[in-house]
Amino acid sequence: MVRLRLKRLGRRNRPYYRLTAIDQRTRREGRSIEELGHYDPINQDTSKQFDVNEERVRYWLSVGAQPSQTVRDLLRKAGIDAKPGTAVS
């Protein structure tokens, strides 16, 4: 099963994450199928904190990919619902 989850990058005390489509059995920093965006929790500018390719995320959700809880929350903040074909208002 494909999951949408975060891959941790960056250095110690300065995390940086990539939003990836990845097989659920793969380790956190393992090989991903596709990279869909990034999340920088340290960035003070909230508009630059989370960047995502909405079209590709909607595609992966439509073919059955399951987002992790953290990714689901981030997508909800960005206006993308975890259910395919719907948008949060």
Fold and architecture overview:
By secondary structure, the chain is α+β, with helices and mostly antiparallel strands. The chain is built from three helices and five strands, in the order βββαβαβα. The chain has helices spanning 46-49, 54-62, 69-78, and strands at residues 2-11, 14-23, 34-39, 50-52, 66-67. The chain has a five-stranded mixed sheet. The model is unreliable at 85-89 (pLDDT under 50).
Indicate the structural class: alpha+beta
The average pLDDT score comes to 88
Could you spell the SSE succession in H and E letters?
EEEHEHEH
CATH H-level superfamily title: Ribosomal protein S16
Tell me the span between the first and last alpha carbons. 29 Å
The biggest sheet, with number of strands, parallel, antiparallel or mixed sense and barrel status, is: 5 strands, mixed
Q: Please give the share of residues in helix.
A: 25-40%
Broad CATH class = Alpha Beta
According to DSSP, the number of beta strands is 5
Give Rg in angstroms.
13 Å
The order of strands across the largest sheet is 4-3-2-1-5
Low-confidence stretches: 85-89
Summed up, the helix count is: 3
* CATH-defined fold name: S16 Ribosomal Protein, Chain: A
List the helices and strands and how they pair.
Layout: E1 2-11, E2 14-23, E3 34-39, H1 46-49, E4 50-52, H2 54-62, E5 66-67, H3 69-78
Parallel strand pairs: 1-5
Antiparallel strand pairs: 1-2, 2-3, 3-4
In short:
By secondary structure, the chain is an alpha+beta fold. It has helices at 46-49, 54-62, 69-78, and strands at 2-11, 14-23, 34-39, 50-52, 66-67. β1 and β2 (14-23) form a beta hairpin.
